[in-house]
Write a structure and sequence with these properties.
The chain is mostly helical and 296 residues long. It contains 15 helices and no strands. It has a domain at 6-187: Tetratricopeptide repeat domain (Serine Threonine Protein Phosphatase 5, Tetratricopeptide repeat, Alpha Horseshoe), CATH 1.25.40. Helix content is 74%, strand content 0%. Helix 1 (6-17) packs across helix 3 (53-67), helix 3 packs parallel to helix 5 (90-102) and helix 7 (123-135) runs antiparallel to helix 8 (139-152). The longest helix is centred in the last third of the chain and has 24 residues, at 259-282. It is elongated, with a radius of gyration of 23 Å.
Length: 296
């Protein structure tokens, strides 16, 4: 039987999920994983006693496959575990992680809902479903699931993180700020909390505070794409186009598949071009028609 510790088990899942949650706060291993898994393990202990070693092995194997982002193999393991023990909540919640990695949010929500029906105290079921709700822009539902997760475990960083994201999307920046502050109170080394708070400060118009938080996140996690993206946004709002472009270039170099970074950079180029043209006119440059050559 595989011997994966409780904390490491969720760490594996959250590390895999960090790949697909880059567009919203959230999710790395570290302190958040440890706090989350302790609650999940406690909630499932009585449930786990009712299943066979074979089923436990299948679930652990599925989690291990997730660590390598082998979603097909992970799902196959969870499927078999469910077929052998359909009343066991854990493999449903774990399979939801694989579906989130694949972008199959409808299936993830269905699995989490089933897991919660089987074990209403399975904290990670609510957290996973909140991820899926956030990704499908069902922010009120995400808040409700995070509320429940926090009720079950008031120290679960990921629940506060996901809730702060949803609250920001709902325009409730002051409430989101309270969640971000709570996360940092619980774990000052959790970089996503600073990125989330920076995003919140941007919503509140406190751009220098946003920059300071992004700096803190980058100190904790040097190549943190979202930190550079948010800091670039704050610099743009303060009118520092050059620094904003530098940060967006860095974000794109780290994660070339982030469409929002390219879009924001294109807007900065337009703004920089407009300012350059305005400066040229102030300096007396006049172009009579489009056929004229630029002056040296």
């Amino acid at each position: 039987m595989l011997k994966t510790s409780g904390d490491n088990r969720l760490k594996v899942i959250l590390t895999a999920l960090s790949v697909v949650t880059i567009t919203f706060p959230i999710v790395t291993a570290g302190g958040a994983a440890a706090a989350a898994k302790k609650a999940a393990a406690k909630a499932t202990n009585s449930n786990a006693k009712k299943v066979s070693i074979e089923v436990e092995d299948l679930v652990e194997s599925g989690v291990r496959e997730l660590s390598f982002k082998n979603t097909k193999a992970a799902i196959a393991n969870f499927d078999k575990a469910i077929s052998l023990s359909p009343a066991y909540a854990t493999p449903y919640a774990d399979r939801a992680n694989a579906y989130i990695l694949k972008g199959q949010y409808k299936e993830a929500i269905a699995d989490c809902t089933k897991a919660i029906e089987l074990n209403p105290k399975l904290t990670i079921g609510y957290v996973n479903r909140s991820w899926a709700y956030n990704n499908t822009r069902q922010f009120q539902k995400a808040v409700a699931d995070c509320d429940k997760a926090i009720e079950l475990n008031s120290r679960m960083l990921i629940a506060y993180t996901n809730r702060s994201h949803a609250l920001n999307k709902l325009g409730k920046h002051k409430e989101a700020l309270a969640d971000c502050n709570k996360i940092i109170e619980l774990n000052k080394d959790f970089a996503p909390a600073f990125v989330n708070r920076a995003h919140t400060y941007i919503g509140l118009g406190e751009f220098q505070k946003a920059i300071d938080d992004c700096n803190s996140a980058i100190k904790l996690k040097e190549n943190y794409t979202k930190a550079y993206l948010n800091r670039g946004h704050a610099y743009r709002e303060l009118g520092d186009i050059d620094k904003a472009l530098e940060d967006l270039n860095k974000a794109i170099s780290l994660h070339g598949g982030m469409a929002s970074a390219y879009y924001n950079r294109s807007r900065l180029y337009e703004l920089k071009a407009s300012k350059d043209l305005e400066t040229a006119k102030k300096l007396g440059f006049v172009k009579r028609d489009d056929n004229d050559k630029d002056e040296d």
